[in-house]
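Usage

Read records sequentially. Each one opens with the input sequence:
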Amino acid sequence: MDLNTLKKKLSEFLEKTPYELYDIEYIPNKKDPVLRVYIDSLKGITMEDVVEATHLIDPYIDELDPIDHEYMLEVSSPGAEKELRSKEAIKASV
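and closes with the structure output:
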């Protein structure tokens, strides 16, 4: 499955949760490939949110099986310096 398809499916899945998909990236390290999922919400993201989102996302991605080899899933916030991508995000940050 290509990253754009995965991004679309994951974004749709997260619509049913308090989180939204900010971005995904795949880092194909030979030793430890990583699928990194960045989540966000208008109220911001805490460590508890990252843990909860990981518990939601992990089984869903396992079900999709988008990568045909072992990899590590990382769920993270995009950080304080993230690009604001919507009017709602701009309002929430002011």
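Summary fields computed downstream for this record:
- The radius of gyration is 13 Å.
- The longest strand covers residues 20-27.
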